[in-house]
Amino acid sequence: MTQVVVEQRSDAPPHSAGRSPSPVAVVLGAAAVFYAVFIWRTSWVVDGRRRFTLFDDAMISMSYARTFADGHGLVWFPDAPAVEGFTNPLWVAVMAALHASGLPASGVALTVMLLSAVLCLSSALLAVAIVRRLTVTSPGLDAAVAGAVAFSYPLVYWSLRGMEVGLITALTLTGTWLVLRLDEDAEARSWRLVAALAAVLVAGVATRLDFAVVAGALLLWRCWRSPRGRRTQAVAVPTAAVALALVAQELLRHAYYGRWVPNTFTLKTSWVPLADRILRAGWVTCAVVIGSLAASASLLVLARRRRALARPTGVGLLVLVGSTLLAYSWWAGGDAWEWMAHPNRYLSPAVLLLMIAAAAGTAALLRATPVPRPASIRRAVVLAGVLSFIGPWVAFGILSVGGLDPIARTDLGGAAVLALLALVGIVATIAGRRLWEWSADEAPLRAAAVTIVVMTVGAGLLPILQWVGDGGAYQSVDRRATELGLVLGQVTEPGAAVAVVGAGAPIYYSGRAGIDLLGKSDAH
Question: Residue 454 and residue 458: Cα distance in Å, rounded?
Answer without folding.
Answer: 6
